[in-house]
């Protein structure tokens, strides 16, 4: 059933973000033109298009966070729960589908940011100045340990994002245990989640704290990434089980 | 074995007892009216049967299972509000139901939707309130479920739509199924009811066949309801 949930969840979350991505690309084109072919005419265009680009980028981030929270709250704890919570699907599958689709759209937003950077470079003419043979040579010089670092960093980022999403979901689910002032209770619960995370992070990272001063050493950096993945996985699992326990045993759709 | 067996069911909210030691046994093959005024506990009971609320005390068994994935496969639920994703078209909603409910009969749903002249390409958010309610009902009644839980299915719609909804319930439910209609609009549903449950302040105050009520009291269910629940 998880696959079926994702079939509907991923497009549902993307409906509001896709138009923003298109707008983001359009402002990237304008900014690229302003700093490139049109740069001699006026600085005014660079300032205006730069502000437009930043505004849409901020809107994408804000909208992504708002949509992730709203989708979870409305479909599993709000009015739409009258449909979604009566589907023959486990609480774990519901939570997993929401987390996966949120992760997908956050990562896609990151990819969109890189692409808009490329669009700016392309339209400004800067991209043409990059020597492809030099770029490939630089990539080829990355040894196995270098690629491992890149891979571990990406995995650590994905785990950290998922942990943060599950932390928000846990706070919302805890907040819904209160029959009145659920939003206030959710905010309070989120402060609790952040406090718990800070304390747990300090304890779990303590054994490798000396490595923070040796980040120029790839092996130390890789070890920190591995520990970060494990810490995110452990915290994410705690938040996941809080959501699942409350949804299975204390669900109260008002 | 009863289709639904409820024993000592109690649900308390802060400062309120919504259901108070409810015992109820409902057999298949009948349409049951769960009747009571607003705030009497009908919706709370329906929500517990659907797993949307957890009881404070007591047990609920549907097909001998506590509410969970197993019962959700067997129960078709029509809530008292629109809970479907409004951005979806009728076609997309048909696919959604087909994906999640093994007992969903798409041909039956398409026939009902065509019969009502509902556009299959229109988004739900662009439909009128009545059309949304009819579409939801078509999707729910097109399931070949063991239990149908219909919460206020005729509330807030015009008389013509009420007639259509009641005709749809009678003509589409599986004869081995149990249909529960929770409503306070007694006169409109009385003619279709086999069994009647009166619920008052969270307690079941009467559970009898509709025909027995009429024979014993010489009154209609609606008249008896007005007496029992007189303010």
**Residue ranges of chain A: pLDDT <50 for 5 or more in a row?**
none
- Overall tally of domains of chain A: 2
Which structural class do you get from the secondary structure elements of chain A? Answer: mainly alpha
Count of individual beta strands of chain B? 9
Q: Which two chains touch over the largest interface?
A: A-B, 25 and 25 residues
Shape of chain B: globular
Major pleated sheet of chain B: 6 strands, mixed
H and E order of chain B: EEEHEHEHHHEHEHEEHH
Q: What's the average pLDDT of chain A? A: 86
Helix-and-strand structural type of chain B = alpha/beta
Arithmetic mean of pLDDT of chain B: 89
Q: Unreliable segments of chain B (pLDDT under 50, ≥5 consecutive)?
A: none
Task: Please state how the strands of the largest beta sheet of chain B are arranged side by side.
Answer: 5-6-7-3-8-9
CATH-level-2 architecture of chain B:
3-Layer(aba) Sandwich
Structural key phrases:
heterodimer, A: 254 residues, mainly alpha, 2 domains, 8 helices, 81% helix, globular, B: 231 residues, alpha/beta, Rossmann fold, 3-stranded antiparallel beta sheet, 9 helices, 26% strand
Give an overview of the whole structure.
The complex is a heterodimer of chains A (254) and B (231). Chain A is mainly α and 254 residues long. Chain A has two domains: 130 residues; 124 residues, no CATH class. Helix content of chain A is 81%, strand content 0%. Chain A is built from eight helices and no strands. The mean pLDDT of chain A is 86. By secondary structure, chain B is α/β, with parallel strands linked by helices. Chain B has nine helices and nine strands. In chain B, the strands form two sheets. Chain B has a six-stranded mixed beta sheet with strand order 5-6-7-3-8-9, with helices on both faces. A three-stranded antiparallel beta sheet of chain B has the order 2-1-4, covered by helices on one side. In chain B, helix 5 runs parallel beside helix 6. The radius of gyration of chain B is 17 Å and the shape is globular. Chain B starts with a strand and ends with a helix. Classes of the chains: A mainly alpha (254), B alpha/beta (231). At the A-B interface, helix 1 and helix 3 of A face helix 2 and helix 3 of B.
């Amino acid at each position: 059933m998880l696959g079926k949930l994702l079939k509907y969840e991923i497009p549902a979350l993307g409906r509001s973000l896709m138009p923003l991505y298109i707008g983001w690309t359009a402002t990237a084109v304008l900014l690229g033109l302003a700093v490139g072919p049109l740069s001699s005419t006026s600085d005014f265009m660079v300032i205006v298009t730069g502000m437009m680009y930043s505004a849409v980028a901020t809107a994408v981030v804000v909208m992504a966070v708002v949509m992730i929270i709203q989708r979870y709250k409305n479909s599993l704890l709000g009015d739409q729960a009258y449909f979604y919570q009566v589907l023959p699907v486990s609480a774990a599958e519901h939570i997993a589908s929401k987390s996966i689709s949120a992760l997908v759209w956050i990562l896609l937003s990151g990819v969109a940011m890189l692409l808009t950077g490329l669009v700016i470079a392309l339209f400004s003419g800067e991209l043409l100045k990059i020597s492809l043979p030099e770029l490939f040579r630089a990539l080829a010089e990355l040894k196995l340990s270098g690629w491992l670092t890149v891979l571990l960093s990406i995995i650590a980022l994905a785990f950290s994002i998922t942990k943060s999403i599950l932390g928000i979901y846990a706070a919302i689910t805890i907040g819904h245990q209160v029959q009145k002032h659920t939003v206030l209770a959710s905010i309070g619960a989120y402060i609790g989640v952040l406090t718990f995370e800070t304390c747990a992070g300090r304890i779990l990272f303590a054994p490798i704290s000396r490595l923070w001063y040796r980040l120029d050493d790839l092996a130390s950096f890789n070890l920190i990434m591995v520990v970060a993945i494990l810490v995110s996985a452990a915290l994410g699992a705690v938040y996941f089980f809080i959501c699942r326990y409350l949804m299975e045993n204390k669900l109260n759709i008002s | 074995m009863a289709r639904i067996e409820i024993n000592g069911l109690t649900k308390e909210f802060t400062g309120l007892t919504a259901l108070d030691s409810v015992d109820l046994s409902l057999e298949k093959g009948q349409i049951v009216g769960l009747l009571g005024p607003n705030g009497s506990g009908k919706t709370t009971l329906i929500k517990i049967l659907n797993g949307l609320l957890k009881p404070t005390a007591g047990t609920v068994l549907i097909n001998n299972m506590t509410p969970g994935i197993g019962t959700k496969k067997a129960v078709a639920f029509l809530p008292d509000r629109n809970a479907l994703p409004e951005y979806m078209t009728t076609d997309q909603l048909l696919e959604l139901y087909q994906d999640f409910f093994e007992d969903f009969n798409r041909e039956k749903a398409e026939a009902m939707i065509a019969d009502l002249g509902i556009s299959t390409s229109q988004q739900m958010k662009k439909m009128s309130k009545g059309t949304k309610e009819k579409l939801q009902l078509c999707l729910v009644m097109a399931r070949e479920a063991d239990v149908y839980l219909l919460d206020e299915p005729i509330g807030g719609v015009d008389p013509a739509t009420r007639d259509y909804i009641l005709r749809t319930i009678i003509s589409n439910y599986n004869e081995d199924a149990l249909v529960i209609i929770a409503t306070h609009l007694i006169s409109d549903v009385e003619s279709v009811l086999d069994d009647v449950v009166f619920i008052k302040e969270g307690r079941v105050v009467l559970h009898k066949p509709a025909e027995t009520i009429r024979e014993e009291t010489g009154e209609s269910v609606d008249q008896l309801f007005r007496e029992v629940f007189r303010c």
